[in-house]
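Researcher: Last one for today. Full complex below.
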Amino acid sequence: MKALKGNAAVVEALAQIEPDVFPMFPITPSTQIPEFYEEKIAKGEVTTIMVRAESEHSSASAAHGASLAGARVFNATASQGLAYMHEVLYITSSSRLPVVMAVASRALSGPINIHADHSDSMGSRDCGWMQIFCENGQEAYDTLIQAYRIAEHKKVLLPMMVCFDGFTVSHAISPVEILDTEKVKKFVGEYVPERSVLDIVHPATFGSFALPDYYMEYRRQLRQAMNDALAVITETGKEFGKISGRSYGLIETYRMDDALYAAIVIGSTAATMKDAVDALRKRGIKAGVVKIRSYRPFPEEELSKSLSEVRAAVVLDRADSPGTRSGPLYADTCGAVYGRNSRPALFPHVYGLGGRELTQEEAEAAIEDLTKGNENNELYIGVRASAEGAVK
Amino acid sequence: MSDNGHVIKIKIHGIGGGGVVTTAELMAIALIEGENKSAQMFPTFGPERSGAPVTGSIRIGGRLVPTQIEDPDVLIVYRTSVNNKDVYNGIHEKTVVILDTPKSPKEMSEILKHPVWCLDATAIAREELKKDLPGIALFGAFVKATGLVCAENMYLAIRENFPGTKLRGNLRSAHRGMEAAAFSGDMQNIIPVPKARESKPGWTEIEPGAVLVNAGNSKEYNTGSWGKQFPLIDTDKCKLCMICWAMCPDNSLYVSDNVLKLDELHCKGCGICQNVCPDNFNAITMREKGESK
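Model: Here's the assembly. Have a good evening.
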């Protein structure tokens, strides 16, 4: 058991996987990932080729190019960096390149803010990349090991973002069990791409053009791959359980078996919600937590099943979609349960933007309010309307 | 033709750089501002380059729907597209077909199995405008064949939209087009051309990532029609130094029977060969297509 920051845990996994190429550009709070990794290269522990790109748009483009050449590629970024890559992300996913990228989820400016928030990752939710969110350092380490196996699976061949909260996970030290390197290498396996732009024996054209009579077919194919990823993520999580004793799925449920009230949440705040549930249970309230681990592809079936006996649930978004009822998780949750025979009443809340902490009190209140049937009119938990103090 | 509540659909087929869009715009202006009709015009494009297929669609009456016209009531086809059977998809018995061709209406109506109006609009354009822009002559033919726009409104639209230097040539083109358009005569038992639907592969059959795996297929793509110019080779002056062959970006120069020849199916008329041919040989001169040799 080692005491590692989230970023360091990611680097440990990365060193065991030893990807071929890592084009980098620094941005808080992800910078330590290429930093720590370069230290390992300097010590001769790993031989990955690091490329110092001139921006995140360039690092994403370099990742794309290296992947096209048949390399196993890694990248890391956050916030504005992820936003800067935006147009390249679509091309990498539609080219079906299994790039893996760590995202230390951080608020998008403005105002400028470097703290934990999901607006960066949510801003890229439609670009065809898988997104798995990790609650803590151990999950980040474990998920990175599973990432390439999922992304490179023949039925998937899609890039993946491994997301974890900026600072609260990236810079927080917690116990992380590091697996034996041989086991990790065996689990991840060799990357044997079907094609490479450097293959002159089987030449092909990459990055082609499609008129209206073909574009839609290629996009439908990508949708299918994303759908097929659900099973692959589940299967890989089970297989990982066999080598580590820690199994993973598309969601994680906590005390949901007999829960009447639930909180649906993504990321490190799940821990706060679990504490809140324990406290509420002591008070006799049957509460539970559903943590979304795989956000893209969205686990419609699993989520709906977990909520089938629940009366009411609060959906906690750490990003907002101004102009709509709440944030993206709320919209996706409503989409998942709409039309199903039994579904809970869903109540949205936005919390934690720009790194503001959700206190234990607020966490308990968010669930407890469901039992009182009173809809809290303020969407944003803990926001101040005026100097008199926060709106509850 | 009358538009008693029925939407009238006009489709123009040509290639990029040929004035299709301009002609369609002028027709729309004449219809809206001259004839006071409710009309909509929009172009469709293939890849962004000269020589790619371009269409102009015009609807008279009805809503401004953003969909292509599949069943035109009037079909106008530029010389470059007359032999492309796809342009005739969807025409019905009553479709008025106007073709830019040197062939006679009788001949074309027999080929198409449909009555046609024919005129050599490209020849008119080459004389009046010194360019392959047959659209205005075709506009004149359209006026004669359909009466949807009257001649005055056509001339007005042209006057208001062409600058002084081009005006005379365009007015003359329009007038000559109107005069030259000839009808084949009605036919009994028109065999309607069925809407051909190529069977294209579906999403379960195409290569993931839009990777194109049949390398070297550029040979099958005849880019020769893209060019406005072509190299005229003086084989007496040519010393077969092969510099042009090496520099040609389209592999379109080759030697056969000890003489330099041009692959007309692939030459895009870029003129690099003329530029690199050594000054003391001067064996290559670029010429406009259609110019007499």
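The two ends of chain B are 43 Å apart (CA to CA). The mean pLDDT of chain B is 89.
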